[in-house]
């Protein structure tokens, strides 16, 4: 097991998350409807990957963002492979999707960055169900993924997983780069910027 997988993270499932997972797991194979975690984090200096301990206040953090719906891992999250997701970007986008889900029961949130030929990522909530799709980008020419259309998951579980992901991610930044962690988090945590 990798250190940052959900079961080994510094954010153990709270009783509420455990209850949510029991309610929303697949009835046959007992897989949660959604999981979110990270792996292989690095501080970026232009295109050079540095240890996270070398993080500066304005540097990006890249690594493997893992989002799993049922037994399937979402593709296309990193620019140049699965371990090149920009966490400044994804912290903002996942937070925005979570905010949309928290404050409305019928809502659609689309992340269409239009960079590096990436597709658009669509999070949609319809009542007590949610759906994820990989759609064609309006900006980059990134194509829709026919295997990732209207994949169902629990919006309640998504909100719980997102909260745990954030807590675990920021704990990892604090542990690896205590000299700059609070300054970096203040600049790049959308919750703090929008509070």
Mean pLDDT: 86
Strand-residue fraction? 25-35%
The radius of gyration is 16 Å
User: What is the number of independent domains?
Assistant: 1
Question: Major β-sheet, in short?
Answer: 5 strands, antiparallel
Report, as a whole number of angstroms, the end-to-end distance: 36 Å
How many helical stretches?
A: 5
Structural class computed from helices and strand pairing: alpha+beta
**Share of helical residues:** 25-40%
Number of strands: 9
Low-confidence stretches: 1-28
- General shape: globular
Overview of the structural elements:
The longest helix is centred in the last third of the chain and has 22 residues, at 155-176. With 195 residues, this protein is α+β, with helices and mostly antiparallel strands. Helices cover 31% and strands 26% of the residues. The protein contains five helices and nine strands, in the order H-E-E-E-E-E-H-E-E-E-E-H-H-H. It has one domain. The strands form two sheets. Strands 1, 2, 3, 4 and 5 form a five-stranded antiparallel sheet that branches. A four-stranded antiparallel sheet has the order 6-7-8-9.
What brief labels describe this structure?
9 strands; 5 helices; about 200 residues; alpha+beta; single chain
Show the helix and strand layout:
Elements: H1 15-24, E1 35-45, E2 48-50, E3 60-69, E4 72-73, E5 85-86, H2 87-103, E6 106-111, E7 120-126, E8 129-135, E9 151-153, H3 155-176, H4 181-188, H5 190-193
Antiparallel strand pairs: 1-2, 1-3, 3-4, 3-5, 6-7, 7-8, 8-9
Helix pairs in contact: 1-3, 2-3
